[in-house]
Amino acid sequence: MDSISSPQAEMLLDEEPQGGPTFLDRLFDHGLLIRTGVDGLYGRSGAFESVVEALDRLISRLGAADGAEVMRFPPGMSRPAFERSGYLKGFPNLAGTIHSFCGDGAGHAEILACVEEGRDWTDQQEATDVVLTPAACYPLYPVAAARGALPAEGRLFDLQSYCFRREPSLEPTRMQLFRMREYVRMGSPEQVLAFRESWLERGTAMMRDLGLPLAIDVANDPFFGRAGRMLANNQRAQGLKFELNVPVNSVEKPTACLSFNYHQDHFGSTWELRQADGSVAHTACVGFGLERITLALLKHHGLDLAAWPEAVRDALWG
């Protein structure tokens, strides 16, 4: 729909010779990311975090006038609420559960023996009532529904959380634990679609101000299995999801850094979330991948933050 590119961006993406250090290698070598021994699970340096924090403040400034209610949830949520959300229907392969030891002394001894002998010890654990949060908005819906019907003007929420998706990868933009900043709008179809359109414009302007090449495309969620392909096709056909993509790993397969989603009445029906007139509420959200935007900035402006263009530094740090 909308795209911006630059010769400098393509040059940066092509600068790594075949067989040479990858972008991920260079992030490790510069200490921006820290190895943990698990693909997609990394520590972050102070410099990396300074960009994430600046982006978070920038997003807050962009949405400040809207008066969103701020909520911050931990990276775990209720297992019953997770099951009710329907996430397992579309993404069972991405879900992460939290298990814990619930046994007795004999079970503890068995765990220690397994560890000592290099055998699997996890069969001594049981699922808890907590699962890892897959998207920042998921813990919100039951909380909002418990308040009763929405006011006539609907509601707007500001969220941020670490999220988990089980997809280990050597692409630095595909982390298993990452932070998502979201604004979530609840109300009538007209209210939530106007919200999404507004953030399409704001998000595009923000990324342009950060000097990043971008394209906005119709997209779909990575639904699982044969039935998932039908859901994905329907989602694209109805224009329910747009992504703002930036080339980070390659020009051919750019990375979604922002997403703009219209859920229709899915969460309203699931959680019996009502509008003021009693009809089912519709919802929409805009999501910012804080690590992904940071990686896009590092890719296109270089690994030395002090050498970034002055306009980009001003946008982030004033």
Automatic annotation (TrEMBL):
Keywords: Aminoacyl-tRNA synthetase, Ligase. It comes from the Bacteria. GO terms for molecular function: aminoacyl-tRNA ligase activity. CDD domains: Gly_His_Pro_Ser_Thr_tRS_core (cd00670). InterPro entries: aa-tRNA-synth_II, aa-tRNA-synth_II/BPL/LPL. Coiled coil: none annotated. Residues 163-309 form the Aminoacyl-transfer RNA synthetases class-II family profile domain. The keyword Heme does not apply. PROSITE patterns: AA_TRNA_LIGASE_II. Transmembrane segments: none annotated. This is Seryl-tRNA synthetase.
